[in-house]
Structures are given as C-alpha cells and as structure tokens.
From TrEMBL:
Key word GTP-binding present: no
Organism: Pavo cristatus
Family: Belongs to the CYRI family.
Protein name, UniProt field: CYRIA/CYRIB Rac1 binding domain-containing protein
Residue spans crossing the bilayer: none
GO BP, one annotated term: regulation of actin filament polymerization
Major localization class: membrane
Membrane protein topology class: Lipid-anchor
C-alpha cells in the first residue's frame, strides 16, 4: 500500500495527499498506525521522507499532523 502511495504521489501532478486525490490518506495512515509500531515505523518514514507532495499547500494539516 505504501509503495503504491509513493508511486502515485510521484507520477500524479497534484500527488496523493491533495484533497482531490482519490486515495483515502487518512484511512491509510490509520491502518498503518493500528499495526505494531516496530513493524510499520519504516513504512511511515517512507511516507514522510520519500513522497513529493506531503509538504504542499494542498495537503491538509490533519494529514501532516498524522505523519509527524
């Protein structure tokens, strides 16, 4: 799931984090955070540091705070 989000974020003009995106980012992040922390910390870090549009203005503050 994380790999597809990263790929989509890189190839789509507005990215995966925009409100107009077809991806339920809040739901995806919640699913990841419900897993044991030691097994998903690397996946959350991948979303934090390898995505292109996370820090864009079109990204909601709630999504940004979920990944902090």
């Amino acid at each position: 799931m994380v790999g597809v989000i990263i790929l989509y974020d890189h190839v789509h003009p507005v990215g995966a984090f925009a409100k107009t995106s077809k991806i339920d980012m809040k739901g995806c992040i919640k699913v990841l955070k419900d897993q044991p922390p030691n097994s998903v910390e690397g996946l959350l870090n991948a979303l934090r540091y390898t995505t292109k549009h996370l820090n864009d203005e079109t990204t909601s503050k709630q999504i940004k705070s979920m990944l902090q």
